[in-house]
Amino acid sequence: MTLGSHRWSRGAVALTLIAACAGPGDAERYRRVVNMQPVDLEPALALCAGISDPGGAAECAMVAAVGAARDQGVDPETWCDRVPEGPWRNECRFQAAEVWRGRGDVKRATALCLQAGPFISDCAQHLWQDELRGLIFERGPAGFAEQLPRAEVLSLRWRALLGDQTDLGDRFWRRYYENGFEAERHLDLSACDAVEGQGRLVQDHVERCRHAGAHLLQRRIGRVADDPALREVLCAMPAADCASAAVIPQLSCAPDPLLEAVLAEQLDWRCIRGRDGPAPDQGTIRYLSGDGSPG
Questions:
Q1: pLDDT digits (tens, 9 = 90+) for 32-78
Q2: What is the overall mean pLDDT for the chain?
Q3: pLDDT category, 172, cuts 50, 70, 90?
Q4: Cα(217)–Cα(240) distance, rounded to whole angstroms?
Q5: What residue numbers bound the domain in which 108 lies?
Q6: Could you give the C-alpha distances from 105 to 31, 48, 102, 129, 167, in angstroms and in order?
Q7: 122 and 71 belong to one structural domain
Q8: Do 287 and 213 meet the contact criterion of CB atoms below 8 Å apart?
Q9: Using CA atoms, how far apart are residues 251 and 245, in angstroms rounded to an integer?
Q10: Among residues 115, 136, 166, which one ends one of the domains?
Q11: Is residue 71 part of a domain?
Q12: How confident is the model at residue 202 (pLDDT cuts 50, 70, 90)?
């Protein structure tokens, strides 16, 4: 998330929101908790409880719970239940899982991810993504077929730990192929041909591979569009095809109907409609829906 889609406001951003949306003194209460060294849980929670905005109060309580556990040397999840029920309690468990992952305790990290509510799949990905990337990134697309059996073993291990509560079956393979494609600037979906008929756990590796490549191109277009100078070049492209995209090295791709459909959708949304309406994430590059199969 790369991960990160689950993340909420932090630090100065949160202070700005509280100051703008809540009553006088709320920002100062939050600031005092953030700056407390070491964090003393009960006084910190009392400060948070006085914040008039419920979301700001809950975020503040999460900061207090995480900080107090860190500073007092207790288990990171010790006081997550003191955070009001909802996204910030889930975030507290997510952060605690990250601590246990860093300490090498996969079972405790997994147990906390499974309690992280809507963040469960993002949290779980943080547990397995580095090992998966290590399998394929250095080898690039040329290693897709060779590394597939090792990736399947890793997938089964995480399936046993996580059960069927996350979107592992889709996300794992999407990240496998995307990590491989990320190793090279030039995006060529013909690399997916090597996994035709391969794999024991799922039978549609070619389609998964192709859609992962399309998703990577979408992400690259997004990064290009964030740069004003490159956005101007992007929106001046004469056609939505790989030949025209070659003018921007980050968008180098081999001609393919799927990639060019992504280019067309993104150019229409970003350059013609001015990002009016929902992003075309679920258009041409739909992710495969979960079918309950292992992997």
A1: 999 999 999 999 999 999 999 999 999 999 999 999 999 999 999 99
A2: 88
A3: very high
A4: 13
A5: 1-115
A6: 33, 31, 8, 16, 22
A7: no
A8: no
A9: 6
A10: 115
A11: yes
A12: confident
Separation CA 120–CA 166 (nearest Å) = 6
Same domain? 102 vs 127: no
pLDDT of residue 13: 40
Same domain membership, residue 168 and residue 260: yes
Amino acid in position 56: G
140 shares its domain with 110: no
130 occurs within a structural domain: yes
**Total number of domains in the chain:** 2
Contact in structure between 180 and 137 (CB atoms under 8 Å): yes
* End position of a domain, from candidates 115, 143, 171: 115
- What pTM was estimated for this model as a whole? 0.81
Query: CA end-to-end span of the chain, whole Å?
Result: 20
Q: CA 136, CA 117: separation in Å to the nearest integer?
A: 30
Q: Which of 164, 169, 247, 180 is nearest to 215 (CA)?
A: 180
State the amino acid at position 24 in one-letter form: P
Helices (H), the chain: 11-21, 26-34, 41-49, 54-72, 87-102, 106-113, 120-136, 144-162, 168-182, 205-225, 228-235, 242-245, 257-267
